[in-house]
């Protein structure tokens, strides 16, 4: 999979921009706050329909403009697919092959991307919410059914929390409706959990191989999905039964707390090196190596699941890694994936590059022309 071109209108600090991409390594070079990250963000938004930097879509639209437009031509499986995304106060409008898509699940997955930014080095050390978001974003790209179940779950969860509050405040007196919402939540939540568990198993396989390579086979990396509900077997029927029983057992507590206390929205992903919890006991170096291994593992995992390598977005990551981790990063992507990289200087990676990059110089939201070195 590769991105052959990118078109932007009124996105962030780009009034209008059209870029062709003929290379497999594209570098956006320039000082800080010039718009390099905005370019990577635009590719991410084109793929995922939302930003990794903000939940306020109005921030993506150029100041004093009513809407933003993003487009790209994706090449995969020997075909080219035009993608279009419009952003406005009315919402998002997506098109594949110039045909408007009513469902988000029909659009996401057309362009698969893996973003690696400095904050991703906090994947291990950061909050459980960050790790849940990581799972949702990555699984959603390769499994449209998961994305549908996740949207439905979030809607029912919101309704259930509101109803728990109304029951506790005696504004509602029909507990049967709570049973209906609980049953729906169990149905969607069980499917989400089952998919996450299987994804984590596959991710562990690829991540451990990379981690052993980086640690020179001194460390073994394992991943554990820590669910809020205990179940005997990791199959859908057992998970659903366990959820139903758990909800019945904590009903009074949920009414008192006025919120849903169990489910995928409160689960956790835990990393272990040689059986030791990396979040709690790992060194900073081990935490960074774990994050790097997990992010790079997605490249091979997506290839195994979709038959195509994703596009890799590296936002000023090289300067955050030591020399050995830089080498392993470049070795992992060499000859595999089209990579877009932002940096303030290429001196620290120039000698490690084995492919000829296309270099764009970014200055105050303008690209001063492409240079190939």
Automatic annotation (TrEMBL):
This is DNA replication and repair protein RecF. It holds the Pfam family SMC_N. It comes from Enterococcus italicus (strain DSM 15952 / CCUG 50447 / LMG 22039 / TP 1.5). The lineage of its organism: Bacteria, Bacillati, Bacillota, Bacilli, Lactobacillales. GO terms for molecular function: ATP binding; single-stranded DNA binding. NCBIfam families: recf. ATP binds at residues 30-37. Its main location: cytoplasm. It is found in: Cytoplasm. Residues 3-365 form the RecF/RecN/SMC N-terminal domain. Keywords: ATP-binding, Cytoplasm, DNA damage, DNA repair, DNA replication, DNA-binding, Nucleotide-binding, SOS response.
């Amino acid at each position: 999979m590769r991105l052959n071109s990118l078109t932007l209108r009124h996105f962030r600090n780009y009034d209008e921009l059209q870029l062709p991409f003929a290379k497999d390594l594209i570098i956006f070079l320039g000082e800080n706050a010039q718009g390099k990250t905005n370019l990577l963000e635009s590719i991410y938004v084109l793929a995922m329909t939302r930003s990794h930097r903000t939940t306020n879509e109005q921030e993506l639209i150029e100041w004093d403009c009513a809407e933003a437009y993003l487009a790209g031509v994706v090449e995969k499986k020997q075909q080219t697919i035009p993608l279009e995304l419009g952003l406005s106060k009315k919402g998002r409008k997506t098109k594949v092959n110039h045909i408007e898509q009513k469902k988000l699940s029909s659009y996401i997955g057309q362009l698969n991307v893996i973003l690696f930014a400095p904050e991703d080095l906090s994947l291990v050390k950061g909050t459980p919410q960050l790790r849940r978001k990581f799972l949702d974003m990555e699984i959603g790209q390769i499994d449209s059914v998961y994305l549908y179940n996740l949207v439905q779950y979030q809607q029912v969860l919101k309704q259930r929390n509101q109803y728990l509050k109304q029951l506790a405040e005696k504004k509602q007196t029909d507990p049967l409706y709570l049973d209906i919402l609980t049953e729906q939540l169990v149905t969607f939540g069980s499917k989400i959990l089952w998919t996450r568990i299987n994804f984590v198993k596959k991710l562990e396989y690829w991540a451990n191989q990379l981690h052993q390579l980086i640690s020179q086979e001194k460390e073994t990396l394992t991943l554990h999905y820590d669910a809020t509900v205990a179940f005997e077997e990791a199959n859908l029927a057992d998970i659903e039964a366990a959820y139903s029983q758990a909800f019945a057992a904590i009903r009074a507590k949920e009414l008192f707390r006025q919120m849903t206390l169990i489910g995928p929205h409160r689960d956790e992903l835990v990393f272990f090196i040689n059986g030791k919890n990396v979040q709690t006991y790992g060194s900073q170096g081990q935490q960074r190596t774990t994050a790097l291994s997990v992010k790079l593992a997605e490249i091979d995992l997506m290839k195994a699941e979709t038959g195509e390598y994703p596009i890799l977005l590296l936002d000023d990551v090289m300067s955050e890694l030591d020399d050995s981790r830089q080498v392993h990063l470049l070795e992992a992507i060499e000859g595999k994936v089209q990579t877009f990289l932002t940096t303030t200087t290429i001196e620290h990676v120039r000698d490690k590059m084995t492919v000829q990059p296309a270099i764009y110089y970014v200055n105050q939201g303008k690209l001063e022309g492409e240079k190939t070195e």
